[in-house]
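Lab notebook, design round three. We kept the backbone fixed and only want residue identities now. Task for the bench partner: fill in a sequence for the structure below.
Input structure tokens:
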């Protein structure tokens, strides 16, 4: 095989589509139920949007963005394939003044994104996310609402055994004290940290907490957690979120060492994991990002959101042997068969008439024998076959064969549609 899909990308083949649709339809239904409206933003954005929002020292910005320059050589002309969608959604919210129309906006998206990561199970370079962003509110109930929505989405698909882990990383005020604590702690471990983390020590010490290197991870696990350094406001917000989860029967685990790979998060952060996924076990990641709207040039408004990885969701559905309720392939209701090759054009007219009536119909274009066409109709699971030959054409009739009973009848062409409906074949 000469041409292959690029490393870290996947084709989604027709037989997989019903499951994808099931996931997408559940997503749309759930998001609608919780009052979120769909938004679609471009696949690429100007690069500074991501640098500003995700953070210059994050893995995504440092190593994983697909950037290219458009023709003009200004900074603005650097383009990046979107590595996440929170920043684009906030950008669109501000650019189109949705905040002026109504400050509190609940938006969701479904689409592909791109990160130049080392591909492995559950980690690809192009993948799809369902995400929600609730923009314009500080309320802890918004945090609760979006977590409940994520859990309901998974439950709606039949995934009920996932784990919601939650933490608070406070605001810049509480983090400045915590930064000093971390600096002191990691100073004693500088020699054992990986090269990357030694670099992070000066640039952004919080990132060491998110290092995937085993040695760094173990050192980071023993660092004191931010929870002890939360300011009263952040502490009270966090308490109210946990209260809300409890009151609404949403099970969670507090995880004081949970961190996220984006700089924009404040206060609540969370992750939803599933044991079927192995080492890349996160299905969903999210949290509050109270400073991002302002950072991107808008008013000082709070916001929160999450993103679910759809490939991983599909992997979990596979491991639980959950199949879409509908048929895997949608067979044509009717297969039109030409008695002789000369009839192909006339059969095509008939085929086209059926389709215009809204009937799923198909035929053969390869001048196969009558027998071969019947076999083909069988293989594609058509409910009925409509046979057209020179005699039928002359008499303006067709032969109809019902595939389940084998029953054959000759009927007037103009009565075909009514008969198919009466027999519940279409
Ligand atoms: P993030 O945007 O990094 O918070 O990720 C949110 C979710 O997207 C994760 O919990 C995963 O389910 C999924 N995800 C993130 N990165 C990848 C990737 N490289 N390949 C597939 N899924 C991913």
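Proposed sequence:
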């Amino acid at each position: 095989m000469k041409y292959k899909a690029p490393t870290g990308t996947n084709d989604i083949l027709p037989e997989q589509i019903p499951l994808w649709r099931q996931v997408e339809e559940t997503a749309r239904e759930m998001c609608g139920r919780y009052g979120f409206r769909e938004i679609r933003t471009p696949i690429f954005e100007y690069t500074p949007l991501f640098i500003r929002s995700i953070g210059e020292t994050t893995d995504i910005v440092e190593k994983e963005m697909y950037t290219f320059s458009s023709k003009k050589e200004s900074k603005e002309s650097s383009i990046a394939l979107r590595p996440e969608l929170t920043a684009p959604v906030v950008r669109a919210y501000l650019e189109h003044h949705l905040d002026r129309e109504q400050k509190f906006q609940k938006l969701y998206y479904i689409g592909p994104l791109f990160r130049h990561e080392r591909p492995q199970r559950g980690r690809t370079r192009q993948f799809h996310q369902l995400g929600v962003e609730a923009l314009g509110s500080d309320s802890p109930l918004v945090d609760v609402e979006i977590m409940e929505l994520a859990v309901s989405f998974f439950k709606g698909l039949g995934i009920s055994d996932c784990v919601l882990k939650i933490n608070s990383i406070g605001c810049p005020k509480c983090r400045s004290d915590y930064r000093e604590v971390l600096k002191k702690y990691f100073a004693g471990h500088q020699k054992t940290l990986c090269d990357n983390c030694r670099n992070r020590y000066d640039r952004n010490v919080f990132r060491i907490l998110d290092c995937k290197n085993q040695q760094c991870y173990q050192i980071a696990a023993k660092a004191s957690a931010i929870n002890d350094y939360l300011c009263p406001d952040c502490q009270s917000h966090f308490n109210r979120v946990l209260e809300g989860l409890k009151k609404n029967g949403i099970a969670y685990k507090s995880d004081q060492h949970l961190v996220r790979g984006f700089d924009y998060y404040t206060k609540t952060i969370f992750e939803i994991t599933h044991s079927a996924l192995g080492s890349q076990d996160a299905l969903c990641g999210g949290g509050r990002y109270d400073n991002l709207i302002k950072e991107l040039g808008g008013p000082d408004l709070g916001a929160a959101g999450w993103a679910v990885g759809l490939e991983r969701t599909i992997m979990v559905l596979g491991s639980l042997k959950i199949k879409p309720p509908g048929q895997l392939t949608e067979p044509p209701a009717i297969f039109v068969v030409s008695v002789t090759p000369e009839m192909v054009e006339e059969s095509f007219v008939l085929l086209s008439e059926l389709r215009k009536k809204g009937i799923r119909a198909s035929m053969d274009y390869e001048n196969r024998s009558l027998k071969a066409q019947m076999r083909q109709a069988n293989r594609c699971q058509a409910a009925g076959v409509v046979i057209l030959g020179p005699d039928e054409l002359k008499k303006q009739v067709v032969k109809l064969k019902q595939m389940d009973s084998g029953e054959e009848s000759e009927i007037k062409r103009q009565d075909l549609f009514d008969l198919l409906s009466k027999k519940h074949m279409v």
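Keep this in mind before ordering anything: The chain has a mean pLDDT of 93.
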